[in-house]
Amino acid sequence: MPQSSAIQVRDRLQDRLFEEQVFGEGALRWTYGTRLGRTLEKALLSRRLVSRLMGAFQDSPSSTGRIPSFVQQYGIRMEEFESGPFASFNEFFIRKFKPGVRDFAPAPALAAFAEARYFAWESTDDSTCLPVKGALLCPRQLLANALSEEQARRLSGGPLLLARLCPTDYHRFHFPDSGTWLSCRRVAGRLHSVNPVALEARPRTFLDNERQVSLLECDSVGLLAYVEVGALGVGKIVQSREPRGRFARGDEKGYFLFGGSTVIVLGEPGRWKPDADLLESTRSGVETLIRLGEGIAR
What we know:
The chain has ten helices and 15 strands.
């Protein structure tokens, strides 16, 4: 990606394109845009220990000094969130919305499970790539044998939603429908950045990064594979409850500690279809910013 390239995102609510303000853009472009940067990232920065050390600092009381400038620089609307005081930057990072700030679309719509930038596909196969950037999304490799043969058959060729969370976003993720949590499996891997700048340099990022794969049997849309992907700087993926039993539409499933991250949801063919505007934007190679709880598929 050229150094001058901007990341264009469509704001669904305001029906306009905007240029994303990238956290740590200069360092990110150097890391993934130069030979020395890519060598350093592969040899050191993508290792779990580095992200753990970064996360340890974000957990420390001394990290709170970053909060006011972060809020101001990225225009975070703190009136939407529960107030502090926050004991660390990570406490601020996983801040919750105030009750009633976001509502979840009722069934049979599939609700947005994260406040994030979305791509959507009506169907997928092992050659599916992220538009423009060329990042691979092979479902078989993404799920890494977390499914039984019957579950793999049910999900084969189905729709897919990919939600990219920036460091400036709300970093809790939720259930898009009511249902039953069947299983959860951790897949070991590296921690490369998931920013589009990095995806162009490392097309296999989603297949190589550490992730957690949950299987959900949902009341309205059938079987879902729900995948949280770790990334550079993400100290931890936390499940907010035991991975079993019933859940309600909109319940919190978990959260990411500091860093940009991704949630990917795969479904059964013919059970649901992403909304037409998301499919159209994806074909144009443009992500769509969607608020938590909005309807995203029927």
